[in-house]
Amino acid sequence: MRSLPFFAAALATSVTGIAVPAMAQQAATAPVLLDATILDVVADGKATRVPDIATLRAGVVTQAATAAAALQENATRMNRVVAALRKAGVQARDIQTAQIGLSPQYRYAENAPPVITGYQASNQVSVRFRDIAKSGAILDALVAEGANQIQGPEMTVDNANQAMDEARVDAMARARARAELYARAAGLRVDRILTIAEGNAPISPGPVMVQARMRAAEADSTPMVAGEQDIIATVTVRFLLR
Fold it and tell me: Which of helix, strand or coil describes residue 58?
């Protein structure tokens, strides 16, 4: 009978011995949440490059009384356009069919069903120019060979990996500087970084519509100016302030 109180006391001592380290561990980590401030910063970094690739769409739109005639005329003129591209030195890997279409053309009258008056065929290729300075003269040659639909250009940087890394470094520096600013304003200091997340990819300008027109031979070719392009990297950084 005397052994039972002794056993109960030993068990209580054992349980207490297990619980105390757990409570001590919680007490050790609690100050991280109690005396610290969390700051999330979203920052953009950039690196500037001169685009070295221009991508355009060039095509032919034809109309005829029958679908077969519209397609045949379109194919004849489109073959001349592709041949002109290859003659100008554009590599086969930089020419890709982008869109082919055939649709009926209607005449509408009041209180009468629409009547098909003919057919329109279209064919577009996406062309990548690796020498932007020469792309204007090539466009003029395409128009001379029958191209009557041109869209673009979209200017891009061929190898943007190095520029992206520079933009990432810039984004992190901007995030850190902003965190330091907030910390000073709040009477705190930046203790450490908790998390880093990368945001969206490089932003390139959208395509610009260009009206193609037939014209006689002129001394000047269609101008194509590369300008500059910003490669953008976005980061979200979580800082711990104390």
Answer: strand
The runs of H, that is alpha helices, within 114-205 are 132-144, 161-185
Are 97 and 145 within one domain? yes
Residue 16, phi then psi, degrees to nearest 5: -65, -40
Q: Are 123 and 59 in contact (CB under 8 A)?
A: yes
Domain contains 29:
no
pLDDT tens column, 40-79: 999 999 999 899 899 999 999 999 999 999 999 999 999 9
Partners of 53 in the β-ladder: 156
- 175/241 same-domain check: yes
For residues 231 and 202, the answer to whether their CB atoms sit within 8 Å is: yes
Contact 99, 123 (CB under 8 A): yes
* 176 shares a domain with 100: no
C-alpha–C-alpha distance, residues 103 and 122, integer Å: 9
Alpha-helical segments (H) within 35-159 = 67-87, 132-144
**Cα-only R_g, the chain:** 34
Range(s) of the domain holding residue 110: 53-156
